[in-house]
Amino acid sequence: MKTVRKLGIICWVMALACDSGDSSKDTGPGKDSADSAAGDTNMPDTGSGGLDEARVSGVSARLHPDFGSLVYVSWEQLAQATGHVEYRFDDEDWLQSPSRALEVGSQEQLLLGIPYDRDVSYRVVNDFGDGELASDVFDIQTDPPPDGVPLATLLSADPKLWEPTLEYLVTCLVKWGGGITAYSIIVDRQGRLLWALEAPSGFVTMYVRPSYDGTAILVDHNSFWGSFDGGDTSQVLRMKLDGTVLATYDTPGLHHSFTELADGSLVWGASDRQDERLDQIDPDGSVHTIWSCQDFYDSQGISGECGSNTVFWDEDADTFLFSFYSTDSIIEIDHATGNTLRWFGQLDRAWQFQPDDSAFWWQHGCSYTGTGTLLVSTHKSEHSDVGVVREYTLDSDTQTLLETWNFGLEDEILAHEMGEAHRLAGGNTLHNYGSTPRVREATPEGEVVWDLEWGNGFYIGRSTPVEDLYSMAP
Question: Which of 87, 116, 144 is the last residue of a domain?
Fold first, then answer.
């Protein structure tokens, strides 16, 4: 019986193998699949009668020339219908593209969420008002992964307990030494590589992320660490997954993090070698400074270097959390006025920690959760490089951060540099370990339900859960 999967959902229970018949297998990189039926004798109950009943002809497929895991299926539509393309790989359940109205004539559909180096079966499914009718099944093979991209190893997984909306992970990998290498990547729950984009020479990507509205991917080209020019030529690109660039933003001084606002503005930590600012570029291209670290330090009689690593926008309050590794501190800033509202960590007159040994050090990836708590990826202690997550309730009356939850204290996983923590919609927490390229998901009880690891000396940058890839398609 047919299992029509919700877009993007990956089944971890292997489906019954289908006899794919005598299908063409010579559709390597850059080649179209053969326009012939695969002869699937175990077709699920789509009411399929092949090409004639589905009213299609000339079904074929090709690979994207730059992203060899992206498959384009083409066909001639012989009658109006509502339709989609179904596809499968690794003997898993059939996935499907979004359904849409199909007019008579040439049609093409991009398929997403397919790993590199896989045999893929696909078929066109039409509904003329009396139920779905599927074409014959055809095959194509995706390209091998790009040279140099490290592949993840799935260390453990418990699908029953993980966050259901985390279908995919958008992240980036950076390697220094012997030349700089950086990739933006997307993986699925099994850690299979689905998409990879190498940063151009002289740049690194450290903070790739989906756009605010989820319709594009934002890729940073960071020259601060790529060509060591102080970030003078740093940029952020707004892209579709097929590589179409929708917009390019100059973000001088960008060296770590940036965020996007609801109106499309970008805000980033900007270094000018003497100060660290919070700068904003509006949709019309105008740039202004929201806040200056050095001005704040001077006003408070604080001495210390300004070096940031995280910008988090709290949309409800319209404030920013600006994290500084240089002073082990997090500063909250009002967007509209640029006023400093409060600060946490190791600065003079910062809020206190309770208990004392719950203080954060070398923190990264801070955010406010939906319940108003502060979530931080941090070193375990001042003199430890073990990466942990700490969560605090804010007591404004006593100006105290009360630790209410932590994760990883006993696990001894190092996070010398970088790192990030996300509270997921269902209550689980996603933690990445920066210079130890590893991502783990934990339940509120601290049980690890997903553990993914990369090797080869790469750092992992920002890591964002994604439910639907098709929203980022052209």
Answer: 144
Q: What is the mean pLDDT of residues 317-340?
A: 97
Q: What CA–CA distance (Å, rounded) separates 360 from 350?
A: 12
Instruction: Report the half-sphere exposure of 288 (CA within 13 A, side-chain side).
Output: 10
- Per-residue pLDDT, averaged over 40-55, amounts to 62
Q: Report which residue type is found at 47.
A: G
Per this entry, what is the length of the chain?
474
| Shared-domain flag, residues 327 and 179 | yes
CA dihedral defined by 429, 433, 437, 442, rounded to 10 degrees? -20
Q: How far is residue 114 from each of residues 16, 71, 94, 96, 183, measured CA to CA in Å?
A: 19, 8, 12, 11, 18
Structure tokens at 398: 């006593």
Domain count, the chain: 2
> What residues contact residue 356 under an 8 Å CB cut-off, 6+ apart?
none
* CATH at residue 329: 2.120.10.30
pLDDT at 2 over 80: no
Strand-pairing partners, residue 417, are none
Task: Say whether the peptide bond before residue 145 is cis (omega within 30 degrees of 0).
Answer: no
Radius of gyration over every alpha carbon of the chain, rounded to an integer in angstroms:
24
Domain that residue 56 falls in: 1-144
Q: Is the same domain home to 208 and 96? A: no
List the one residue out of 422, 421, 435, 423 whose CA is nearest residue 386. 435
Which of 95, 114, 144 terminates a domain? The answer is: 144
Tokens 């200056």 — which residue? 292
The token pair at 73 is 């299926």
C-alpha closest to that of 219 among 245, 189, 192, 252: 245
- Does 97 share its domain with 173? no
Instruction: Give the containing element (helix H, strand E) for 299.
Output: helix 293-300
Residues 327 and 302 in one domain: yes
> CA dihedral defined by 254, 258, 353, 369, rounded to 10 degrees?
-170
Which pTM was predicted? 0.89
Residues 286 and 159 in one domain: yes
pLDDT value at 16 more than 80: no
